[in-house]
Design goal:
Largest sheet: none
Helix content: over 70%
Distance between the termini: 56 Å
CATH architecture of the domain at 7-420: Up-down Bundle
Shape: globular
CATH class of the domain at 7-420: Mainly Alpha
Order of helices and strands: HHHHHHHHHHHHHHHHHHHHHHHHHH
CATH topology of the domain at 7-420: Sodium/glucose cotransporter
Structural class: mainly alpha
Length: 605
């Protein structure tokens, strides 16, 4: 399906691309002072600006197209499926982990290692393993975005180019303003991108409400589609409506939904407790002005991201259900649900708004790509070049090396993008396999005093290795089994590496552990270190907030789910759902204000 764009729509798209380059050059003078300015914006930007920027980076249109597909098939139950990432990691960051991380006052996640493990041999190995993981994960994300951008552009843009040619051009434009302006240009352009995407998304939701009545929708959905909750099985039967949807449910592996849900929850909690991966999410936390604003920024992401994104998802889904079913049926047993988006744009958006939405979708792609590109070179420049090659260079030298590193990272990501065949394969590998290799070492570093740099290194290396070979093993011995079921095995291998590496070597220097414990103030298994700190400083009190933090996480997850459900209920005009979502959102907001927000000052002092 190829869209035919009016000249006005083409002008809007070209004007947007030109504007992003202009902004990059305009703010470049702010980024050229030093590495802190280039990668973290000098830590002067307000938390709400960084929150919008972070939300814009998460407004990935490839992911949005996947969310449209699952909303089409699974209805309100699809709201649970983004826990695969997991989306509720923002709640755990909000409640306590962002504050812990920001107290370190470092530039990158790898540099944070010195805060926890010092500067000995084990710390150097741990530092090296984080750099390797960061570069591997960023390469995977860039390949994912390259494939998604190419497929998107080949459908939506009118010129006769291949998907790879489109991807190279658009990502090249993005690279120009990222390399030139650093984080300042990323954040400023992301504010523009988020504004465009928000307007476009809400417009799509309103158009869907105007075109589709609740009665029309009810005729084309199976029983239970509007029900958020589920039983042992998914309990959706598409027979007689779209028979191929039943086959798709079996193929996805979600039929026994309770088992799958528990796997998502357990995996999500473990990954979230490990803290943010070394990407743009961590970078935004480190860029905040203080620990309190780090927590507020992470909470704000859920507030600003969810409503417009799910207005878009629900709007596209409703339009497809009521008007695109004949085309999907005609495709037989293997319908292409990714055609929902271009169909809705082609048939329901007026001139001008069509160009704005396509510019907004480009913005979503470019925002995620830009944030990833800006995060990756920090590890090459700060954690390799500055630390091991030229520690006393001038700041201008580091900035020039940052330019080169950004371009190198982009070229490597594009190279892997040419090799990768499936967007979904890359996404599933990142979410389920690679994160399995990350979780164990990064959980233990926060909560167990005895864990050392050698244990971290061996846990990360064995985890990354297990993640690399897991897809092949799953395809050979467990064909058709969902990738999430590889997560426990990968994490177990990594955990064994962590424990053996730790117990076979000495504990970290006591002074390093005491400094980390008094600075970051984590809860967990820190009693031996707490007792030593208490002897030196009788006024010191341990972190006793484990119970309250767990309670706030539970309330926060309920709060986030209500925010997700609300725009979907609005678009399908399910009034009792709207009432319940608003009521739950208000109640949980009031609880969080009392048990989390009002205590931020005392917790982050």
């Amino acid at each position: 399906m190829q869209l035919e764009l009016h000249s006005i729509d083409v002008f809007i798209i070209i004007a947007y691309l030109a504007l992003t380059i202009i902004i990059g050059f305009w703010v470049s003078r702010l980024a050229s002072k030093n590495l802190d300015s280039y990668f973290l914006g000098g830590r002067v930007m307000p938390w709400y600006i960084l929150g919008i920027s972070n939300a814009s980076g998460m407004f990935d249109i490839t992911g949005t197209m996947w969310l449209v597909y699952i909303c089409f098939i699974y209805g309100l139950k699809s709201i649970w499926l983004p826990w695969l990432w997991p989306t509720f990691n923002q709640i755990i960051l909000m409640v306590y982990l962002s504050c812990w991380l920001r107290r370190s006052n470092v530039l990158t996640g790898a540099e944070w290692i010195t805060t926890r493990f010092g500067k000995g041999h084990g710390a150097n190995l741990a530092h090296f393993s984080v750099v390797i993981f960061a570069l591997v994960s960023v390469t995977g994300f860039l390949a994912y975005e390259f494939k998604g951008m190419g497929k998107f552009a080949s459908i939506f843009l009118p010129w006769d180019l291949t998907p790879n040619q489109y991807a190279i051009i658009i990502l090249g434009v993005t690279t120009i303003y990222v390399v030139k302006g650093g984080m300042f240009s990323v954040v400023v352009t992301e504010l523009l991108q988020f504004a465009i995407m928000t307007i476009s998304s809400i417009a799509v939701g309103i158009i869907a409400m105007m075109k589709v009545s609740p009665e029309m929708l009810h005729k084309v959905i199976p029983e239970g589609w509007t029900n958020l909750f589920f039983g042992w099985t998914i309990d959706l039967d598409w027979s007689g409506i779209l028979d191929s949807a039943n086959s798709q449910i079996l193929k996805d592996g979600y039929s026994l939904f309770t088992i799958f849900f528990m796997m998502m929850l357990i995996k999500g909690l473990l990954v979230s407790m490990a803290g943010p991966a070394p990407n743009y999410d961590m970078q935004r936390i480190l860029a905040t002005r203080n620990p309190k604003e780090a927590g507020m920024m992470s909470g704000f992401v859920s507030v600003v991201l969810i409503f417009p994104r799910y207005m878009l998802i629900a709007g596209l889904t409703v339009l497809a259900l009521c008007f695109f079913l004949p085309e999907l049926r005609a495709m037989g047993g293997d319908p292409d649900f990714e055609l929902i988006l271009p169909y809705a744009i082609k048939n329901f958006l007026p001139i001008g708004l069509m160009g704005l939405l396509i510019a907004g979708l480009l913005a979503a792609f470019m925002s995620t790509f830009a944030a990833t590109v800006n995060a990756a070179p920090a590890y090459i420049v700060n954690d390799i070049y500055k630390r091991y090659i030229n520690p006393h260079a001038e700041q201008k030298t580091y900035i020039r090396i940052s330019y080169a590193a950004s371009i190198l990272v982009v070229l490597i990501g594009i190279g892997f993008g040419f090799i990768v065949e499936s967007i979904d394969d890359v996404m599933q590998w990142i979410v389920n396999a690679l994160w399995g290799g990350y979780a164990a070492a990064n959980i233990l570093k926060w909560y167990w005093w005895r864990f050392n740099g050698h244990g971290f290194f061996w846990g990360m290396i064995t985890g990354i290795f297990a993640a690399m070979i897991a897809p092949g093993i799953m395809a050979t011995y467990f064909p058709g089994v969902h990738e999430i079921y590889a997560f426990p095995g990968i994490m177990f291998v990594s955990l064994i590496g962590c424990i053996i590496g730790t117990l076979a070597t000495k504990p970290e220097d006591e002074n390093v552990l005491k400094k980390f414990y008094t600075t970051v103030r984590p809860w967990g298994f820190w009693t031996p270190i707490y007792e030593k700190v208490k002897q030196e400083n009788p006024a010191f009190e341990r972190n006793k907030n484990f119970g309250r933090d767990c309670f706030n996480i539970l309330i926060g997850i309920v709060w986030q789910i209500s925010l997700v459900a609300l725009p979907v209920y609005i678009v399908i005009r399910k009034m009792d759902g709207i009432a319940w979502a608003i009521a739950i959102a208000i109640i949980t907001t009031l609880i969080l204000k009392k048990t989390w927000f009002d205590r931020l000052d005392e917790e982050t002092a």
